[in-house]
Amino acid sequence: MPTHDTRVILAAANLRDLGGIRIADGRRVRTGLLFRAGHLSDLNETDASTVAGLGLRTVVDLRRPSEIESRPHPELGVTDVLHCQVSSDDNEFAVVANLLGDTAHQVDGPGMVEDYFRRNLTDRLDAYRPVFHLATDPDRLPLLFNCTAGKDRTGFVAGILLRLLGVDADTAMADYLLSNEVRRHWIVEREEQHRLVIAKRLGVGSSEVNDDQLTALRSLLWCQAPFLEASFQAVTDTWGTWDAFRRDGLSIDDDRFGAFTEKLLT
Q1: Which residues contact 213 (CB under 8 A, 6 or more apart)?
Q2: Strand runs (DSSP E) across the chain, as ranges?
Q3: pLDDT for residue 2
Q4: Helix 125-135 vs helix 153-165: crossing angle, to nearest 10
Q5: Helix axis angle, 153-165 relative to 254-264, nearest 10°?
Q6: I want to staple 15 with a disulfide (CB 3.0 to 4.6 A). Which of 10, 25, 163, 207 is the partner?
Q7: Looking at domain 8-264, what is its CATH homologous superfamily?
Q8: What is the pLDDT of residues 194-230, one digit of tens each?
Q9: Which helix (H) or strand (E) holds 232?
Q10: CA triplet 11, 6, 86: central angle to 5 degrees?
Q11: What are the boundaries of each domain within the chain?
Q12: How many Å separate Cα 109 from the centre of its chain?
């Protein structure tokens, strides 16, 4: 658990501050203005007090209605909680999950998740565009965006925002991969549970289940660099530059973005 990383506020919710990250021109993202997280439904009283103390003005919830119903937000004293559903019930993650126990079909989990991240730019940008408009509105800060695990939809939004701000690809990737450390204990537990399920189905000991049989599951549990790289590549393949993507893909003009960076960067 990366307790040494001061940006991690609540590991149990994969909640962290994007503040402190350095951009290419030497400036940094101000702390206390832009946060990313997983679901917040399991906060205890102390953790809820911590979140309330962030002084959030806006929460942008990226989840589907069924997810929100099963894990509703607690009362956090936030001015606005806005729901921006960005994926359907039959998205690539759902397809991989539904095929995990199907021995009759081979599923390319990593390939499908990589395609998911790519298609966020090529097929789902209309769903994400409102999210980026909200997240770059200086009057909405402090703002938190979240999904269920805080790693895929949230990781995509964070990665794109950081690149738009001028953060280099390696630093943006490091923030994305940090979710692996924050959630490592939970992930390893789920891996072992699945290994036991496979062993029981095959009638063998769990030690006889090889890692290849966990590949599809691991594509759902772990952040992997090729996933976010697929999104970054889709931006440059389609728009050429990040500024062109901001202006033409997201319809965020220079004046609007300038007001955002003036408030966010120091």
Answers
A1: 198
A2: 8-10, 15-17, 34-37, 58-61, 80-83, 143-146
A3: 45
A4: 60
A5: 100
A6: 10
A7: Protein tyrosine phosphatase superfamily (3.90.190.10)
A8: 778 776 777 777 677 767 778 888 999 999 999 999 9
A9: helix 225-239
A10: 50
A11: 8-264
A12: 18
